[in-house]
Backbone:
């Protein structure tokens, strides 16, 4: 135990703790910009400087360990002046367009400017001038707003291990960009949007589909419908100051109806459908000696990653479309037929916690009769903006339920939104399909939680089925290497590009607290525990759709509508 | 493509990155785009990080040099003798900025901190030749001289070609 004094308060800290963490433990806030929890400090931004007695200069508290008898001042005039100058210099090289900025009122630079009472422009000079990169289908990069904190670079390189962006050039021309400053669309980026979640300003943001959605809602000839991903209902409440981990499914449905959507469906229905298709595909591969291990294909970021980096392993990927694409495809085939609608008139909007889903919905492989399965994708954040624009006071909304038949779902579908959930749901159904009995233990703790690669073995009819769950694309390398060297023992592997799964997707409300993510996960597990049915094959609407339309899972028709193909993007990117 | 260079270094060792880039530049005069991706694969770090290093250091260039490289001394002595004007005049004459190459790939303008010829400041250096105590007036004449030489060379090449 180390004893030190911070602002004359006695603080007990552990060996190796930084001044920043020690200050935090006694309720002293020190501002940070480049600091990232659990990553090695870079000390680049200097906004966290403090005064340590006996040291000549100011010390970056995020990178300096505590020692016995240390005397620290975090709020002396000298510290405040230094911090204020840093903020002033950042602000002077930043566009003055807060009023029309997408991150207005949720911007760390704005907060700091307020905190240090910036009231005038002291250093007027040349501002950096960079073009906005709008090349990708999901994301925009606006380097003029970048304050070079480097959190996106570290997320991309150290956490996700994608390495699409890095610091380039030097001094005033420093810029976080892609190789040769080309568009994100031709870079290694998988559009997971984790960089958006860590960006303190609006330098990284999603590409908005709001305009398309609003004009579809205003178009009387369109039958505009909407579907919600499981993770959205567990997080959107945060934007309305509801307690963390509040389930707001009912309010969401009402809100969407008030926005003008003709029908409100649940992506969870299609998640159950996915399990039927993917489970059957897995059983088929195991029985008929198909390519194993099989990978899940729900996460479009992961699909893009394997297409770009390991196209030689593409036949390990399940051919199932992701749930929201399945929902869209079913809406424009089965549902249109049933309701007597022209498929071309149906406009399907997906509310997703994800940025890559925008890219996915544009894929040529996910088109049928020149129609996209899904016409527009809104992130959770964009939906909040739409609600605000429409004057919908979320907190006072009454609860409502989904439209049917594409609104019914089981508990297995709800947990799709968290890492390990797809695997758990698939095992519940695969076990039943192979043995005829229901899986007793519905809580597979081995594959829950926050570990990078989770493993489990489940005995089905005397055969050990080995499964793995990759939590975050940064952990997938080892698993892929195992397969390439022929050493992989797994049968089935789930991969989610975002750490924690969709619940922590790049389209979710922006925050810098990891504990929020765990609270969101709890919501999904609660929905599962309280569900009437907890296995996808128990979904009555899914049973009905097979009886009336598809025949059976993996039938010719099901393949036509619910399955897809992939492309080798390594070749495409090489040109 | 750069196997002759790569074979001198161990694979997946990022500490050799700069040395490899230097070798490639020695061979090609600049770092071609495909070299960046090949180096990234060889060293085992993302392409953008290699690009980041290549743009951080002044010694690396990503576009080939022009046939004639003009170096304008911007050291203290030359600065006092108004080398800024010399540079502006050159930039106006060739319609490029310092660090750029003309579209016909004939000229590149670079600035250097000090050429080491302060006694004849302001000084510029084109290829192997030094021009000391230079004035703005002389610049068009000097550039013309090099342009004419290039024309002659081209004419010779054409004659040789037709002779072949």
Residues:
């Amino acid at each position: 135990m180390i004893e030190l004094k911070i602002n004359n308060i006695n603080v007990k800290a552990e060996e190796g703790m930084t001044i920043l963490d020690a200050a935090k433990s006694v309720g002293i806030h020190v501002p940070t910009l480049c600091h990232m929890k659990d990553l090695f400090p870079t000390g680049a931004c200097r906004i966290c400087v403090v005064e340590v007695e006996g040291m000549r200069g100011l010390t970056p508290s995020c990178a300096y360990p505590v020692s016995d008898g240390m005397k620290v001042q975090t709020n002396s005039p000298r510290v405040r002046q230094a911090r204020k100058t840093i903020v002033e210099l950042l602000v002077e090289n930043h566009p003055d367009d807060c009023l029309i900025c997408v991150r207005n009122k949720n911007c760390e630079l704005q907060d700091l400017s307020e905190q240090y009472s910036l009231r005038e422009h002291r250093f007027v000079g040349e501002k950096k001038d960079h073009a906005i990169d709008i090349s990708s289908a999901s994301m925009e990069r606006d380097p003029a707003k970048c304050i070079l904190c480097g959190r996106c670079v570290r997320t991309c390189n150290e956490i996700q291990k994608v390495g699409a962006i890095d610091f380039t050039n030097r001094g005033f021309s420093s810029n976080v960009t892609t190789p040769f400053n080309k568009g994100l669309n031709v870079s290694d980026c998988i559009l997971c949007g984790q960089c958006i979640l860590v960006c303190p300003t609006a330098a990284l943001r999603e590409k908005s589909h709001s305009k398309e959605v609003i004009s579809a809602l205003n178009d009387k000839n369109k039958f505009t419908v909407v579907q919600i991903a499981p993770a959205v209902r567990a997080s959107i409440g945060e934007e309305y100051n509801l307690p963390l981990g509040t389930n707001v499914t009912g309010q969401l449905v009402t809100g969407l109806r008030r926005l003008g959507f003709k029908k409100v469906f649940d992506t969870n229905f299609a998640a159950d459908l996915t399990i039927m298709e993917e489970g059957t595909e897995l059983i088929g591969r195991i029985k008929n000696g198909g390519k194993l291990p099989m990978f899940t294909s729900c996460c479009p970021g992961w699909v893009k990653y394997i297409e770009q980096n390991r196209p030689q392993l593409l036949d390990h990927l399940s051919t199932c479309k992701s749930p929201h694409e399945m929902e869209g495809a079913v809406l424009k085939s089965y549902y249109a037929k049933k309701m007597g609608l022209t498929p071309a008139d149906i406009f399907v909007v997906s509310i997703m916690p994800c940025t890559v889903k925008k890219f996915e919905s544009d894929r040529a492989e996910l088109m049928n009769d020149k129609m996209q399965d899904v016409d527009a994708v809104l992130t959770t954040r964009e939906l909040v903006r739409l609600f605000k624009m429409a004057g919908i006071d979320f907190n006072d909304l009454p609860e409502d339920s989904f439209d049917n038949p594409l609104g019914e779902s089981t508990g297995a579908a709800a947990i799709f939104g968290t890492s390990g959930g797809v695997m758990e749901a698939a095992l519940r159904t695969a076990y039943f399909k192979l043995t005829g009995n229901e899986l007793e233990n519905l809580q597979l703790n081995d594959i829950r939680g926050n570990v990078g690669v989770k493993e489990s073995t489940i005995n089905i009819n005397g055969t050990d089925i080995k499964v793995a769950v990759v939590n975050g694309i940064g952990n997938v390398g080892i698993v892929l290497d195992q397969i390439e060297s022929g050493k992989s023992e797994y049968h089935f592997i789930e991969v989610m590009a975002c750490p924690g799964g969709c619940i922590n997707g790049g389209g979710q409300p922006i925050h810098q607290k990891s504990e929020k993510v765990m609270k969101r996960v709890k919501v999904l597990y609660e929905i599962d525990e309280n569900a009437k049915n907890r296995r996808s094959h128990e979904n009555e609407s899914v049973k009905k759709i097979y009886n009336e339309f598809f025949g059976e899972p993996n039938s010719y028709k099901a393949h036509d509508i619910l399955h897809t193909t992939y492309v080798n993007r390594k070749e495409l990117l090489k040109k | 493509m750069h196997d002759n260079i790569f074979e001198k270094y161990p694979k997946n060792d990022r500490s050799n990155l700069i040395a490899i880039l230097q070798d490639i530049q020695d061979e090609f005069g600049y770092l071609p785009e495909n070299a960046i991706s090949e180096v990234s694969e060889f060293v085992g770090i993302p392409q953008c990080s290699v690009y980041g290093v290549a743009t951080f250091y002044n010694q690396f260039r990503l576009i080939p040099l022009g046939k004639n490289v003009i170096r304008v001394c911007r050291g203290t002595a030359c600065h006092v003798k108004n080398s800024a004007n010399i540079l502006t005049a050159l930039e106006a004459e060739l319609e490029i900025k310092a660090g750029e190459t003309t579209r016909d790939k004939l000229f590149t303008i670079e600035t250097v901190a000090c050429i080491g010829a302060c006694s004849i400041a302001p000084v510029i250096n084109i290829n192997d030749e030094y021009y000391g105590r230079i004035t703005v007036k002389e610049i068009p004449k000097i550039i013309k001289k090099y342009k004419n030489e290039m024309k002659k060379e081209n004419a010779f090449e054409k004659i040789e070609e037709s002779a072949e």
Summary: The first helix of chain A runs from residue 19 to 25. Chain A touches chain B through 16 residues (CB under 8 Å).
